[in-house]
Amino acid sequence: MFGLEKPAGQQKPGRSGGFPNMASVGGFNVLSSSIPATKVELSVSCRNLLDRDTFSKSDPICVLYTQAIGNKEWREFGRTEVIDNTLNPDFVRKFIMDYFFEERENLRFDFYDVDSKSPNLSKHDFLGQMFCTLGEIVGSQGSRLEKSIVGIPGKKCGTVIVTAEELGCCRDSVLMQFCANKLDKKDFFGKSDPFLVFHRSNEDGSFTICHKTEVVKNTLNPVWQAFKISVRALCNGDYDRTIKVEVYDWDRDGSHDFIGEFTTSYRELSRGQSQFNVYEVINPKKKGKKKKYVNSGTVTLLSFLIETEVSFLDYIKGGTQINFTVAIDFTASNGNPSQPTSLHYMNPYQLNAYGMALKAVGEIIQDYDSDKMFPALGFGARLPPDGRVSHEFALNGNPQNPYCHGIDGVMEAYYRSLKSVQLYGPTNFAPVINHVARYAASVKDGSQYFVLLIITDGVISDMAQTKESIVNASKLPMSIIIVGVGPAEFDAMEELDGDVVRISSRGKFAERDIVQFVPFRDYIDRSGNHVLSMARLAKDVLAEIPEQFLSYMRVRGIKPSPAPPPYTPPIHVLQTQI
Question: Keyword annotations for this protein (predicted)?
Answer without folding.
Answer: Calcium, Metal-binding, Phosphoprotein, Repeat
